[in-house]
């Protein structure tokens, strides 16, 4: 479904902290410094109702930045090594754009999140914040756009520097903004910088060379195609029961769905049975730090889990076999993370943060449990939170929550080329849910998103 509407944007301006904040420089952690994190993560947050949203958000952001003052700062080279970064607490602020939708007939927020909307570059450009035309030296850590709709719904478009926060940290900051928006005078969680916990333990400096990039597609047929798959809870329960029956063990929703996507994709792509296929997902490693991180820490603290197997074993094996691969890799995370922190390298297997960027590698991230779904600015939590595809040549999948009131899981994938799309989607939904319904699949053309970064 193609929606027609125009978005009128303000010129945008910087929102500074409501009070004077500390200056100086703050060191970044060894994970913050990773070259692969030097980008902005883009998300869209859809809300069904709000009043004077931009005005409320502006005041709440200014209040939240008094305690989250590092987010009002800027990154700069530290001088301690080629490309090494430090955070300058400059107090400059967060970039905010106010926007409104003009349309006839009326378009509602619900029209954007039912899974059938075509998310092309133009629509994303309309709802995401962008810097001014003269942007020399302009590089805020956070950019936000508040777009209001005639139905009183609104969409928050967010760009967040991954150098400063992971998903849990970004959700924590938005939660702080939401508390001030609802009239709180004190935060329920006081923010803590705490990056020194991931400084002293690491012996070797991080390479600051640009991360390797896959070659651009030689023609449009090699660009990855997006497909959105809503998985009903009964279907998830059946997959878990099947694993329990075959193995006598339990598995999590993330484990069984990640294994299912990996297996379906491996079946769909034409690779030799002896070719290595790689699954990469990211584990929160906060529980493995001793002493623990301070409460309120909002920096990066995750570690990639690399699962490798011959394509034939995944393609021809059972789903239970693929789940076991995922579980075995998860069981090694604590030890592998400790070795990486202590030794400063990836050992014989190479740097885990630099997996092969090839068509045979699939990246999976989980968004449903980061905390974005509970952020309430005063008119209720979001109906939907949508992460934006950051590359049309690096295969990826996001395990997310579906729009309310739907239950289950939404899989947002951009992991196969056009020739493999039908087979991939068929593989994901070939087993019907208990109620007889097939999982709905919404293939969506979604190209050229790299131009937004």
Task: Name the features.
single chain, alpha+beta, seven-stranded mixed beta sheet, 17 strands, 25% helix, disordered C terminus
For the terminal residues, how far apart are their CA atoms?
25 Å
Label the overall shape: globular
Average pLDDT, rounded to a whole number, is: 86
**Low-pLDDT runs:** 200-206, 432-438, 442-453
Instruction: Tell me the helix content.
Output: 25-40%
User: Count of DSSP E strands?
Assistant: 17
Give a written overview of the molecule:
By secondary structure, this protein is an alpha+beta fold. It is 25% helix and 23% strand. It is built from 10 helices and 17 strands. The strands form 3 sheets. Strands 1, 2, 4, 7, 8, 9 and 14 form a 7-stranded mixed sheet that branches. Strand 8 and strand 9 form a beta hairpin. Helix 1 crosses helix 4 and helix 6 packs across helix 8. The longest helix has 16 residues. The C terminus is likely disordered.
Topology record:
Layout: E1 6-9, E2 13-15, E3 25-26, E4 40-47, H1 53-67, E5 74-77, E6 85-88, E7 94-102, H2 109-112, H3 121-127, E8 142-148, E9 154-161, H4 167-181, E10 224-231, H5 233-247, H6 253-268, E11 276-284, E12 302-310, H7 311-316, H8 319-331, H9 333-343, E13 361-366, E14 384-387, E15 396-400, E16 409-417, H10 418-429, E17 441-444
Helix pairs in contact: 1-4, 6-8, 6-10
């Amino acid at each position: 479904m193609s929606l027609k509407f125009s978005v009128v944007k303000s010129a945008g301006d910087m929102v500074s902290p409501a009070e004077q904040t500390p200056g100086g420089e703050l060191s970044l952690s060894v994970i913050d410094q990773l070259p692969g994190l030097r980008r902005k993560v883009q998300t869209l947050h859809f809300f069904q109702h709000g009043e004077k949203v931009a005005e409320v958000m502006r005041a709440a952001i200014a209040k939240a930045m008094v305690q989250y003052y590092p987010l009002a700062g800027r990154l700069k080279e530290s001088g301690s090594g080629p490309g090494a970064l430090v955070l300058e607490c400059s107090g400059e602020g967060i970039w905010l754009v106010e926007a409104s939708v003009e349309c006839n007939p009326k378009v509602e927020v619900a029209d954007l999140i039912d899974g059938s909307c075509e998310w092309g570059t133009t629509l994303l450009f309309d709802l995401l914040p962008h810097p001014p035309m003269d942007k020399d030296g302009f590089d805020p850590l956070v950019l936000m756009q508040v777009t209001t709709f005639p139905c009183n719904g609104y969409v928050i478009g967010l760009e967040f520097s991954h150098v400063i926060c992971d998903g849990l940290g970004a959700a924590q900051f938005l939660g702080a903004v939401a508390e001030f928006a609802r009239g709180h005078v004190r935060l329920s969680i006081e923010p803590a910088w705490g990056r020194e916990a991931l400084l002293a333990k690491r012996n070797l400096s991080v390479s600051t060379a640009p991360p390797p990039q896959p070659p651009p597609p030689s023609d449009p047929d090699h660009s990855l195609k997006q497909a959105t798959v809503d998985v009903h809870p009964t279907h998830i329960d059946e997959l878990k029961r099947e694993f329990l029956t075959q193995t006598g063990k339990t598995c999590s929703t993330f484990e069984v769905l990640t294994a299912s996507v990996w297996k379906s994709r491996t079946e769909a792509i034409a690779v030799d049975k002896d070719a290595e296929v790689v699954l990469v997902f990211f584990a929160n490693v906060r529980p493995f730090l001793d002493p623990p991180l301070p409460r309120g820490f909002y920096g990066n603290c995750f570690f990639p889990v690399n699962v490798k197997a011959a394509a034939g074993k995944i393609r021809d094996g059972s789903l239970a076999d693929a789940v076991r691969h995922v579980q075995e890799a998860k069981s090694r995370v604590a030890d592998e993370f400790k070795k990486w922190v202590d030794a400063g390298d990836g050992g014989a297997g190479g740097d885990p943060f630099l997996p092969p960027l090839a068509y045979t590698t699939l990246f999976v991230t989980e968004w449903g449990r980061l905390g974005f779904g509970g952020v309430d600015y005063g008119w209720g939590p979001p109906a939907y939170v949508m992460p934006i595809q950051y590359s049309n040549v690096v295969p990826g999948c996001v395990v997310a929550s579906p729009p309310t009131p739907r239950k289950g899981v939404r899989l947002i994938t951009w992991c196969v080329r056009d020739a493999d799309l039908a087979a991939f989607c068929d593989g994901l939904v070939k087993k019907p849910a208990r109620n007889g319904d097939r999982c709905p699949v919404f293939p969506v053309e979604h190209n050229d998103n790299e131009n937004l970064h």
